[in-house]
Design goal:
Rossmann fold, 7-stranded mixed sheet, 34% helix, alpha/beta
Length: 216
């Protein structure tokens, strides 16, 4: 849990500048270009966004699911305060979801699971599975262990694991924990608990973002 506390503390600081740095929502836009129609066909009523943050990805997703109840789950209180989004917020972690079982139609987790240590990831995915209704969808993206993301690991604790610095809009740099994913790794983790997995890769600049959409 120490890694998660580090991530929370880092994003509490980063929240002062995050919304201006992530205002475009390019990842969310491209992801919806790949799987948006599939998501829309599910006609979801309740959306849970784990690690919703405060940038453009949140705004893009909330707009796409405008007819649904959109709930944000965010570990960093600073990110919640900086979001400016009028949605129901829960200050929580994917490791402890205060959500009723079988109550959510779609769970989103964009650029979040790579902040979860390997020994906790199945705990998060189990919570997602419990929250979803039968037939519900889980959509997630992670940074890949290639390109700029790999090059930016400044303090490594493994081949694809370490810390990435943030300094935009801040006086000092802040280190964030990352567990970067190899190709196929995200799908393997998710399919331990779900089925019907759709997967792919989206490049944003030189950053590879692996994605999956799985059905409970």
């Amino acid at each position: 849990m120490e890694r998660l506390r580090e991530v929370r503390d880092a994003y509490d600081v980063i929240s002062r500048a995050y919304s201006t740095a992530r205002e475009t929502g390019v990842l969310a836009q491209r992801l919806l270009g790949e799987v948006g129609e599939f998501l829309r066909s599910a006609k979801p009523r309740v959306i849970l966004d784990i690690g919703a943050g405060s940038g453009g990805n949140l705004r893009v997703m909330r707009s796409f699911f405008a007819g649904s109840l959109y709930i944000g789950c965010e570990l960093s209180l600073g990110m919640i305060m900086g979001s400016g989004e009028d949605i129901p917020w829960i200050n929580c972690s994917g490791t402890h979801l205060p959500i009723r079982r079988n109550s959510v139609d779609v769970v989103l987790s964009l650029a979040v699971l790579h902040h979860i240590p390997g020994d906790l990831i199945l705990n998060v995915l189990s919570n997602v599975y419990d929250a979803l209704r039968i037939g519900g969808l889980f959509m997630a993206t992670t940074w890949g262990c290639v390109g700029d993301a790999l090059d930016r690991l400044v303090t490594r604790v493994g081949d694809c694991e370490g810390y990435v610095s943030w300094s935009y809009g801040l006086g000092d740099r802040v280190l964030r924990y990352y567990r970067l994913y190899r190709e196929g790794e995200l799908g393997s983790e998710v399919t331990t608990l779900a089925s019907g997995c759709m997967s792919g890769i989206i490049w944003v600049g030189r950053y590879a973002n692996y994605y999956v959409v799985a059905v409970k």
